[in-house]
Amino acid sequence: MSKNKNHRQEVNKMYGTRYIVEEGDNLYDIAERFNTTVEKLILLNNLTSDKIYPGEIIIVDDLYNIDSEPFYVKYTVRKKDTIYSIAYNYGMTPDQLLEINNMLDTNIKEGQTLLVFNNPPIFTDEIVYKVKAGDSIYSIAEKYHTTVESIKELNNLTSEDLVEGMGLIIKLDIPEMIKGTEYYTVEPGDSLYSIATKHNTTVNIIKRLNNLSTNLITIGQQLVVPKVENGKQYY
How far apart are alpha carbons 36 and 22 in whole angstroms? Predict the structure, then answer.
């Protein structure tokens, strides 16, 4: 069967060129046709083997090359993860995460592998917190959704006494913190700093969620902002 390189392709600027698998296709032929490799197609489409089926849509652009980083990377779902927490942490929307992984709903399970944007996560598992005047181990544990016992264990503390200025390793429970995103309409007098303060987040996080390269915003502009539990601050 004669195949044309441009046959039944659909261009998507964000995710690359898609190809609908035809009868008789295999990943080796498709990889050669689109100047890529089987390994890259498997990674790009989150495949567990080289088997493909007629009618299946696969991404074929060679988004991985020696001059650039991968567009997507693999993420293994952990306990308490949600589509919202994963998407937010990697600078995506839940819809983008679902589409990339060909998912029809938001159900995920521990150990499942998902493709996410190749962004450094906004939140990491652990941070170092500098103790301030008035802090107690209880207030710090409450602020970061963790426990006194966890803080003591991570920092080899034998008591609950803290000293101003000391650094504490804090393990974050990211899925508990992030409850999704919402839209905010910029009002007169707003700045990225004031909006970040209203939503208990940071200017950098808002810039990243909205692909902003500067701090300039305009009245009426809609911005994606995080929903954070109980108005607590996490940065």
Answer: 18
Q: Residue 136: what are its φ and ψ, rounded to 5°?
A: -130, 160
Q: Which range of residues forms the domain containing residue 198?
A: 176-229
In this prediction, residue 66 has a pLDDT band, given cuts at 50, 70 and 90, of very low
For the question of whether the overall pTM of this predicted structure is more than 0.85, the answer is: no
Q: What is the pLDDT of residues 41-58, one digit of tens each?
A: 887 777 888 888 887 777
Give the chain's domain count.
Answer: 4
Could you tell me which of 116, 98, 99, 115 has the C-alpha nearest to residue 107? 98
In a domain, 235, yes or no: no
Residue 234 located in a structural domain: no
CB 191 within 8 A of CB 220: no
CATH of the domain at 185: 3.10.350.10
If phi > 0 it is left, if psi is from -120 to 50 it is alpha, else beta; for residue 65 that is: beta
